[in-house]
């Protein structure tokens, strides 16, 4: 469970507002993924009978001492029928998920535009320039149409979702084969073997849902960030922004370390899948909004919170002076998700641990 962040009294109003914007954003994102999970349960239920038939076939053969091989499992007529039905159901689910994500992308992109306008106005008001509120160009809603329905690599969302399903088939097949290998025992009751097979198949299915959830969360949050930054650029009064991370014990190490750093508004706020960072505008003629940088916040947290965020190995390495916080941050290009900042694994920070 994430630790709640209580903003100090001295925290600028614009930062409190942006944290509030993010909570609203994440609440809407969560509602969408909950709907996707509920629809996935419908998908699984529709496949239940065929999954049972596959399990029964394998269980009966095993109980009879036939000890089916890997090829026996994947060439079963029942298994082929199950996969064929699964393909059809995943196609229907893709249509549903892509449509739902597109609808939320549009909603969150609108929110990104609105929040950017509000953030600039909060800066003006916070420094006593209420007369300048709204004194900048506002992007028309029609401008966000170009980002709705697209994935991070510019392809339609349904293509990205469909590309994930082969992994689902492979996960199910691997789980079934592992279950058979584990359960080969002529004395094993068919009912017991059936339970093992069913659990394995459902575990493989869960991988498909996990992948769909990552895509949904990432692409909805990306639509918000892109629209947010488009408005900052359109305003004509924002040339830079500062990164603001989510400060809880689930925050990415790289994100908390970069919290408070300056970036040109022409450079996208590059975040990893499911990233929760947001941009705080630096408004022309106004002092930059200042808050406690993420690295300082991190260093003041209890040991357990630091371990939760960094991982035990990185925490101990920092204490021993083997590397610095800056050494942890790594930039990685990605054809699907775009460039992103991530935390280096321990074996890169301490090479001698590579074989450990």
Structural features, described:
The radius of gyration is 25 Å and the shape is globular. It is mainly α. A 3-stranded antiparallel β-sheet has the order 2-1-3. A two-stranded antiparallel ribbon has the order 4-5. It folds into 2 domains: 9-236, no CATH class; 239-356, no CATH class. It has 11 helices and 5 strands; from the N terminus they run αααααβαββααααββα. α3 (77-126) crosses α4 and α4 packs antiparallel against α5 (190-235). Helix content is 60%, strand content 7%. β4 and β5 (340-343) form a beta hairpin.
Strand content: 5-15%
Structural class by helix and strand composition: mainly alpha
Give helix and strand order, one letter per element, not per position: HHHHHEHEEHHHHEEH
Oligomer status? single chain
The major sheet is characterized as: 3 strands, antiparallel
Q: Helical percent range?
A: 55-70%
Total strand count, please? 5
Instruction: Please give the count of helices.
Output: 11
What does the overall shape look like?
globular
Number of separate domains: 2
Strand order of the largest sheet: 2-1-3
- Overall mean pLDDT stands at 85
| N- and C-termini, Cα separation | 30 Å
Uncertain spans, ≥5 residues at pLDDT below 50? Answer: 1-9
Radius of gyration: 25 Å
Task: Provide tags for this entry.
mainly alpha; globular; single chain; about 60% helix; two-stranded antiparallel ribbon; 2 domains; about 350 residues; three-stranded antiparallel beta sheet; 5 strands
């Amino acid at each position: 469970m994430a630790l709640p962040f209580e903003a100090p009294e001295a925290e600028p109003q614009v930062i409190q507002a942006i944290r509030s914007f993010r909570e609203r954003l994440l609440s809407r994102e969560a509602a969408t993924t909950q709907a996707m999970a509920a629809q996935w349960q419908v998908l699984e239920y529709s496949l239940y009978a065929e999954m049972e038939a596959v399990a029964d076939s394998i269980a009966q053969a095993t109980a009879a001492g036939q000890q089916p091989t890997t090829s026996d499992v994947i060439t079963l007529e029942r298994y082929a029928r199950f996969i064929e039905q699964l393909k059809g159901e995943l196609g229907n689910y893709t249509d549903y998920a892509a449509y739902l994500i597109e609808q939320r992308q549009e909603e969150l992109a609108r929110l990104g535009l609105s929040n950017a306008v509000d953030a600039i106005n909060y800066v003006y008001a916070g420094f006593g320039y209420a007369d300048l509120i709204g004194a900048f160009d506002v992007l028309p809603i029609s401008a966000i149409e170009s980002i709705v329905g697209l994935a991070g690599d510019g392809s339609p969302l349904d293509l990205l979702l469909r590309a994930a399903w082969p992994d689902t088939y492979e996960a199910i097949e691997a789980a079934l084969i592992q279950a058979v290998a584990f359960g080969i025992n002529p004395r094993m009751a068919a009912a017991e073997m059936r339970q093992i097979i069913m659990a394995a198949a459902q575990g493989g299915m869960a991988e498909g849902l996990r992948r769909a959830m990552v895509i949904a969360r990432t692409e909805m949050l990306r639509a918000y960030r892109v629209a947010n930054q488009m408005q900052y650029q359109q305003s004509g009064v924002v040339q830079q922004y500062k990164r603001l991370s989510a400060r809880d014990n689930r925050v990415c190490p790289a994100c908390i370390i970069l919290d408070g750093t300056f970036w040109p508004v022409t450079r996208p706020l590059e975040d990893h899948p499911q990233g929760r960072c947001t941009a705080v505008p630096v408004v022309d003629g106004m002092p930059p909004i200042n808050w406690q940088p993420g690295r300082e916040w991190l260093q003041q947290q209890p040991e357990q919170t630091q371990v939760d965020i960094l991982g035990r190995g990185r925490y101990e390495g920092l204490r021993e002076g083997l590397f610095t916080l800056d050494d942890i941050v790594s930039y990685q290009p990605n054809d699907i998700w775009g460039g992103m900042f991530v935390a280096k694994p321990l074996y890169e920070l301490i090479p001698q641990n590579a074989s450990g």
